[in-house]
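Repro:
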Amino acid sequence: MRILKLVLVLMGVLIGTLAMAQVNSGRVVAFAQDTMKNDFRQAQVFEVRDAVAKLSGVSFAYSDAQGQTSLLIHQIEQFIDQRVDVLILGTNDQRAVVPVVRRAYKAGIPVIVLDRGIDGQDFSTFINSDNVRIGAMGAKFVADRLAGKGLALLFEGLQTADVTRLRSKGFMDEMAKYPGIKVIRRTGNYLRKDALIEMEKLLADGVRVDAIFSESDSMLSGARMAMAAKKVDPRSVVTVGCDYTSEARDAIRSGTQTASILFPLGGTMAVEIAQKLLRKESVPRHITNPVKLVTREHVEQVPPIF
């Protein structure tokens, strides 16, 4: 039966994606991921993969839903049918996945919800960062740099993800303290390409912002590309991203990005929790990863998350 399960995982070719297993023997940790087109989400999968590779008797499988909620649900259903031993979830919709996650949990598969939360309660552990605080940190930094006056752009991620709602809430609540700063909002879906398109539209309309708070460094990268194409110097705009990737570190070094808010991928922590779950040990219901604001003043002392 165990061999059959691993064969099923290896054969898990899904519509438009691939479920992959690094086979050793024994039990399977599976990661159902929203999309691998997002730098952060891809890096999460790779961090889990590398951590599982160090374990004896545990194999790794993952799926890529390519941003499609219906496909994500289908892939989770396949992992349930394959009877994986632990399911790690990176969702794109906090509500739509609740029934299928409940099915997995009720079937006896421990579920680790990573980074983006869900509305249900049927999971083993939720690992995330304080997203309200992330938004507030970004707003406070922008407001200080603008001396309380100007036009700020809030680049939001997926509207169906709880992290977007929470970061936006933190940002807008803090910005409400600064009546001299006007905020406009655009959605970039955590993708470089989508943010580039939205920034191009703003610039074509003659909108010139004094600051940008982007809920991911990938979106901020897209905004910089659009500004560069229109001969707008990114150094003239206060720009704050989230993640603190190598690309963001390089941009902060060069002065084309002002700051980034670092928060861990959470993959290593997820595998540590998965090991405990495999041993039938108790685990915390909620784990909060710390966050940190990185600027040019201390960029050399803080390693990027990937």
